[in-house]
Design a protein that fits this description.
With 158 residues, the protein is an alpha+beta fold. The chain is built from 6 helices and 3 strands, in the order E-E-E-H-H-H-H-H-H. The protein has helices spanning 42-53, 65-72, 78-89, 93-103, 106-131, 137-157; strands spanning 2-6, 13-22, 33-37.
Length: 158
Amino acid sequence: MLCQFVNPVNREISDDGLVLYFRANASYTGEDTLEFHIHSSRATISAVLKALSTIPGCRLAEPGEFTRRAFEAGRMDLTQVEGLKDLLDAEAEQQRKLTLRGAVGTTRRRFESIREQIIRTLALVEAIIDFGEGEEIEDSVWEQCVHVHLRFLFKLEH
C-alpha cells in the first residue's frame, strides 16, 4: 500500500513509501510482519527510524533475528539456516551459486533422500535377519537390498 510515513509524536511527514503486510502464514518468520519501503537517503532513514522508535515495543531487529524466528517457527531447517549464512558470506559468484542450494533447501532434500534410502536398506536387512536362511523371501530381498545400496552409493558419489 502506498502511504505517507508520519511521525506519531510531531505529525511531520517523514517520507512517502510503500508498506507491505504479510500474514503469519505467508511471512518469512511465520509471524505477522510489516515491511517498509522508503527512500534511501540517510536523512529519510533516520527520520523514519526516529518516528518508529516512539512506538512502544517497536525496535530494530537484531542481526539474524528473522532467520532465528523462521527456524524456531519451523519455516526453515538447520541446513537452510546454514546455507543462508553461507550465502550472505559469499564473496564470489561461484560461492553464491553453491551456497544458494543450501539456502533454498536443496541440501535438506538431498539429506532426506539419503535418509530414506538408509531406512529402506535397514528394513530389507532386518527382513533377511528376521526370516533367516531357507525362506523364499531371502533371495529377492537380498537382491533388493543390494540394488538400494548401490543406488545409495551412487547418490553419495554424485
